[in-house]
Amino acid sequence: MTPACIKPLYLKTISCLLLGIVFNSPIPVKAQHDFDSDIDELLSEVNSLLLNREYAELNELIAKTREQSAYSINGTPLLTAIYEHLGSPIRTTRQTVVSINDRKQVLDAWISSEPSVGAYVAMADCMFTLAFEHRGGGFASTIPPARLVPMHEALEQAEAALDQAEAYAADRDIADAGIPLYRMRVGLLTGTDRETMQQYLNESAKIDPWLQPPIRAMCQYLQPRWYGEEGDLLAFAENWSDEMASQTGDYSYAMVAWGAFNSRDVTHFSEDGFQWPRMKRGVLQWLEQVPDSPMRLGGIAHFAHLAGDRETAQAMIERLEGRWTTGTFPDFASHERTVRWAFDTDSIGDSLLVAELGPKRTTRVSVLNEGKQFIAFNRQRKATEIIAYDTETGDESYRRSVWPERLTFVSDQPVGDLIDIGMQIRGRTTVLRGDPETAEFVIIGQSDGYIQSLTATEDGKVVAMSDSGGNIKFWLIEDAPIPHEWKDALPNGTSSVALSPNGDRIFAGCDQSLRMWSTESRELVHTFETITPRNHSVDWSSDGKILAAAGAGNKIELWNAEDFSKLGVIELSAEFITSIEISPDGKRLVAGTWSSSVPTKPGQVILCDIKRQQVLKTLHGHRMNVHEVTFTPDGRKILSASDDGSVRVWDALQN
Asked: 92: which residues sit within 8 A by CB, 6+ positions away?
């Protein structure tokens, strides 16, 4: 079928085809991406019409798409998708100023031959894309003047194209939602005042109140990093949703909340912030438009997980029938995390307590305040907050913002009421010490690489870290921190470091390298022979007598810390040991396990007897891999962080 023969039902037929494709797929299916295959086919046809100069057919297709207000199965307005594809079909790292200007020439030919609203809006998209390419990333204050001049030139051309589109539409009584949408997108870069932005949003809502892109544009405009202030997003969500309630219910509230969470301007539901009951009503109303959209079903399940609403998450997952979308879950493990949480019927398992922290994986846990509190976060996703939880209840104790900086690491050793942390400050890895409750920190030093491990002596006089480049750095904390660094200390990076109790030696490991250095002489003291192909975690007992190391495989190796003689090996039932820690009294050791299997096998927390070199107890309860384990200072409890998004507390004294 050629585009010239497309009937008005063609676009709806595409959605029907998509439904058939999804429901006839095996479970689990390949992820649904931004556009499904049939939508890709439509956009390819649109591009072909443009390049072949079949402008009449192209204008007809755009007009019919505009009339139908058609959406893809994942909720994308097809008219917006077409304009974005016509304006710049290469939306990847391969996109350059040259490729965008090439596209401009193609669009100029279209406008010269057969002008239309679609042609002008596509040109506006092209020029907006060019402006952003000139601008680059980062805060406005960081953009060099050399980039600002061509950016503003491109924006002026975008505005001119929109003026032409508006005049052409007015003469022919055409209502095209692309015009106010691109007014808003351009306004984001030109700094249009809020009243005018709201006016554009009103115009868009008159055409189609369910359009998501204009709401997203307003959300971005109101972010504190752009033109908004704290609380603007919530106020906008409430006010705009109230205004649109007769047409779309709480849909607008839900879309603003969705955008605020995705941009990390909001991280949790609260009584004085975004509230799940209202967002839930809104997303369920949105779902009614495309009841089988994987993106919408998955998104609702994701936010239900964040809100702790298992019933809603279960209902959405059952309707997904094994599908998942990269629009909601970045990978299958993220989808699996929410699924396992939703259908977990024995959440406690062998643990004393489970603190469900939401749909993000938890890779680090550090104790505070003599073990009464803990900090947990995912070091792969730099956090903008420090969140402490109560070890007895699992409830949140406090959260402190560190925005615009990023929290990247937390030490495994508190120093009294203080803790050492790693942060990205103006692009540099920085180690700081301070009180997490007040968020008052002082800088210890900086590093060139990303932190892999961070520790300190109990008295805080020595701080040591390893980075992604295989370097080890330590600071002697006297009147002022004095740094020393071993470059390329280990050949393949450094996974873990441990300090002797008095800080005079450092023990570090990665892959088949295990080495010890003196912080006094700055010399290499010893290189250990290891049977572990990839060491990932090391520890030093608090009495200074025992060293332990583990990683790939099922063996934990033990050495005498004084003469370096091998004390023995503890064998576990495990594929990979991610974390080990020796108890404060030096008698026991705890390990966390990881598996590469798909679906992921639940990780285990394994308690061992060091003297007898045997397993005391294997503790079950985590739904996915365990990333870190640690004892409380009194040695009575164990805390573990897992891929499943939880921290669990276990009895460390059981046999």
From this structure: none
Q: Long-range contacts of range 458-464, CB-CB < 8 Å, 24 or more positions apart?
A: 458/413, 458/415, 458/501, 458/542, 459/415, 460/415, 460/416, 460/418, 460/433, 461/503, 462/499, 462/503, 462/519, 463/411, 463/420, 463/431, 463/433, 464/497, 464/499, 464/506, 464/519
Would you say 192 and 137 are in contact if contact means Cβ atoms under 8 Å apart?
A: no
CA dist., res. 518 & res. 232, Å (int): 54
Q: What is the three-state SS of 78-93?
A: HHHHHHHHHHCCCCCC
pLDDT in tens, 599-642: 889 999 999 999 999 999 999 999 999 999 999 999 999 999 99
- Residue 428 makes CB contacts below 8 A (sequence gap 6+) with 446, 447
Cα–Cα dist 585/635, whole Å: 7
- What pLDDT, in 10s, does the model give residues 566-599? 999 999 999 999 999 999 999 999 999 999 988 8
Question: Are 460 and 434 contacting, i.e. CB atoms less than 8 angstroms apart?
Answer: no
Q: How far apart, in whole angstroms, are the C-alpha atoms of residue 118 and residue 59?
A: 7
Which residue from 349, 344, 444, 354 is spatially nearest to 394, judged by alpha carbons?
354
Between the alpha carbon of residue 248 and those of residues 115, 172, 244, 283, 537, the distances in Å are 34, 29, 6, 11, 53
Tell me how far apart the alpha carbons of residues 67 and 6 are, in angstroms, rounded to a whole number: 14
The pairing of beta strand 546-551 with beta strand 535-540: antiparallel
Please give the Cα distance from 290 to 255 (Å, whole number). 15
Q: Which helix (H) or strand (E) holds 632?
A: none
For 552-568, the DSSP string reads BSSEEEEEETTT--EEE
Residue 17 has a pLDDT of: 29
Whether residue 145 contacts residue 151, with contact meaning beta carbons closer than 8 Å, is answered with no
Side chain identity at residue 134, one-letter code: H
Give every CB contact of residue 192 below 8 A, 6+ residues apart in sequence.
Answer: 183, 184, 186
Stated pTM of the model: 0.88
**What are the tokens at 251?**
């849909």
Residues near 167 by beta carbon (within 8 Å), at least 6 away in sequence: none
Type of residue at 136: G
- Nearest C-alpha neighbor of 320 from the set 287, 341, 293: 293
Neighbours of 56 (CB within 10 A): 14
Give 427's contacts (C-beta < 8 A, 6+ positions apart).
Answer: none
Assess whether the previous peptide bond of 404 is cis (omega < 30° from 0).
Answer: yes
Q: What is the pLDDT of residues 263-285, one digit of tens each?
A: 877 889 999 999 999 999 999 99
Look at strands 373-377 and 364-368 and give their pairing: antiparallel
Question: Measured over all CA atoms, what is the biggest interatomic distance in the chain, rounded to whole angstroms?
Answer: 90
The DSSP line for 232-253 is HHHHHHHHHHHHHHHHHTTHHH
Q: Is the pLDDT of residue 210 over 70?
A: yes
